[in-house]
Amino acid sequence: MDDDTGRHLDDGWSRSVIPLDGLLERRSIRPTSFHLWMGIVALAAAFLLFQVVVTPTLLMVQLGLAGEEMSAIQKLGAEGLLTSYTRELILSNSVGQVFGLALPAFGYAWLHTWRTGAYLRMRGAPPLLVGLGVFGVLGLQPVVQWLVQVNQALPMPETIQAFEQTQLEMIRSVLESGMGVSFNLVTLAVVPGLCEELLFRGYAQRQFERWGGPGAGILLSGILFGAYHLRPTQLLPLVVLGTYLAYLTWRMGSILPAIVVHIVHNGLAVLVARHVRSEPGYDMRALEQAPMPWYAVVGGLVIVGSVLYVLHPLAEQMRGRREE
Asked: What is the DSSP letter of 3?
């Protein structure tokens, strides 16, 4: 458990303590919920910055430079905008994540310490542990797919279903844009994997752990990660994925495994979607609702459980060797 009883933070993985010398650490008396609310406020502020300020501004700048008139753009509607300006939308979204999610994470950490990288757990991790984390998320795939079916069986208002359909249309537009698999992997897997992990597992989870310990940090980070994506029919699988990523971050003392696992998870989804797209009459929603055999779910749970059983003590052993 992190020790921040003094004016420093000892997370058990850094070779030296992390000084708490930032602006937010200079008050001698703080309410016990301070770190909890800092994590929540940071996530909310980053979400608004990304979704409401940076991404729309970048999109308008691109369209303005291309000589497009605002009145003509407004007449297109959401579907027309997706079809006509797919590249501009996805570039705005990707750059928006960098400036709206990743960079604010560094800014938030700087308010606590000058050692922002250490605070965000930006350190290496043993390749064996990272490999185990990746193997675990491969086993998690059928479980996640089954949770999608469970989640989507719950009644949802038509407005929510329509909103999610718009998100699926954007993904389909990217896959059909002809910009290549490398572009799709970078924008749909690498960028989100890096930027979201810096914010959620790097900063927010650290705050939640300082408030309520590792368990609270892992659970809160996972739950808010699921809610952040604004996809109610995907809430359960996203929470499970977020919780798994949070556990890896805490147990290995690094966000590197979570970044790699996140990229692998998203990358697999992109590659599967591209493969299915080659089939005539494919449907993104039908792909999400594809039934998952019970034995695949059980097998996935066995794989994940086995990985955690091995990884949990092994990470502690490797930390002990690091400290010697």
From this structure: B
pLDDT tens-digit profile of 239-284?
999 999 999 999 999 999 999 999 999 999 888 877 776 665 656 5
Neighbours of 154 (CB within 10 A): 10
Lookup: tokens for 136: 């675990």
Q: Stretch 116-136: mean pLDDT, rounded? A: 95
- The better pLDDT of the pair 164, 94 is held by 94
- Residue 42 identity (one-letter amino acid): A
Amino acid at 13: W
Burial environment of residue 120 by CB neighbours within 10 A (0 to 12, 13 to 18, 19 or more): buried
Please state the separation of Cα 270 from the chain's center in Å. 15
Cα separation, 285 vs 253, in Å, equals 37
- Average pLDDT of the chain is 86
Residue 1 scores a pLDDT above 50: no
Domain ranges of the chain: 8-323
CB 222 within 8 A of CB 196: no
Judge whether 303 and 139 are in contact, CB under 8 Å: yes
Greatest distance between any 2 Cα atoms in the chain: 66
For the beta carbon of residue 250, count every other beta carbon within 10 angstroms: 26
Helix ranges (H only) for 16-126 are 34-48, 55-65, 70-84, 86-97, 103-110, 116-119
Kindly tell me if the per-residue pLDDT of 223 is higher than 70: yes
